[in-house]
Design brief:
Layout (H helix, E strand, L loop, with lengths): L1 H21 L3 E3 L4 E3 L7 H70 L4 H64 L2 E8 L2 E9 L16 E7 L6 E2 L10 E17 L2 E9 L15 E7 L19 E9 L1 E5 L17 E4 L10 E14 L3 E4 L5 E3 L8 E4 L3 E6 L8 E11 L4 E8 L7 E15 L3
Parallel strand pairs: 3-7, 7-10
Antiparallel strand pairs: 1-2, 3-4, 5-6, 5-7, 7-8, 9-10, 11-20, 12-19, 13-14, 13-16, 13-20, 14-15, 17-18, 18-19
Amino acid sequence: MEKTKKSRTKIAVLSFGVITAILSPLIFTGCSWTNNNETQKPESEIVLELKDQLNDLQLKYQNALVLIKETQERENDIKQKNELLIVQVNDLNNLIDQKTARITELENKGQEDADAIETLQAEKTNLQNEITSLTTIKESLKSTISANEQTIATLQSEKIELQNEITRLNGLIAGYEDIAQGTCEVDFYVGETLSTVKVVRYNNTLNEEVTLPESNEYRFEGWARTPNGAVVDVNTIKITERTSFYAILTPKYKVNYISDNSPYFTEYVVQGEYPTAVGNPTKENCGFIGWVESEDSDILVDPINQVVTENKTYYAKFKEMYEWVEVPRSGEALGFSGLTSSGQTNYGLFNNFVANNYVKTRITFNEIKLLNGAMYSINENFEIVNYSSSVTCTFTLEEGQSKVINLNAISGNPACQIKITFQSWNEESKKMTILYECISDGSSYTLMGAGLSKFEVYKLKND
């Protein structure tokens, strides 16, 4: 047990060393050192004293490591001896069982043969004495095992104490090393995340700009000493201990502008501020009248006068500025005839037409007649029918548009395709040009009649 006492002695010495360090006139305060009896010492003098104490702590630390190693070796030695003792106890138990069985056997024989009683009694007495002796030895071994187990428990407890003391020493050494180097750490947090760590000489300012990148989610306002504190200038603060700064962020919100079901403009606006002015969108043949907050709303709003407190979407509101207006005809008939395949005609029935500010024109046909040996009309299903039939064949063409008509074969007439194009309108001559083509293989048809139901222009509304 001498080794155990030695271990305890080392622990006592080590603990006294730690207590001595803690009760030193110099008190560690995170990143600076002060003296209980004096004013703050110059930095150079503090560093020299710290280096001396650092060397002392490192020596104690090495001694603690040696003691833990010795304790572990002692524990392993006792465990091995205990294992051997347990084997011996088990062997003794087996031997006692054998002796007890032999006594029982002798007692049985003595009952059968009275002449052998004296001899058997002597042997039985010897066996009983052996059992008593073995039991004594076994109990002694069990006491030794119990004592060894108690020693192991004590050593383990001492080892834990030493490990805890080493942890303490490591922390103190780390603090001493930081101060011996004359530096402190400055931590910069964004929310709960440590973003940046800077190292600053003791009692000096940072003298370095620390910023955050631009983001659509926030505007960086600066750094504060607490998560929700006031912004401070970090470069004016002298660092004398480990210091934390927290980013102060103002959220941004997304402001969307939609025009004619398509994205028009997007910006991210700081909470509590106003959107920037946006140019007016355009839409064909329409005029922009303002912005609304929902697609089906008619209530106009001015985004640049609305404070942003959430994500926002504005929709462009348009008003149609043009309308189709029918042009009165000059002549009594709205038809023409005699166009052969690929021919064209100038058709002037609107000599009195006067219209300003129109952007396009269109015509509507309501009757088509073709000649192919006989006169035929085209019905609404684009089938060839008899001339005498009452038929309707209505379709509208804007200027520059064409209509391809697939004619079904009927009554012996072949199927074919014809194409009618409203090619142009000449305001000066007051005439339109219509192109007729037979574009399929097979017989050619002559366009004998194309009734116009109306002629229209797309012009600015009066209101």
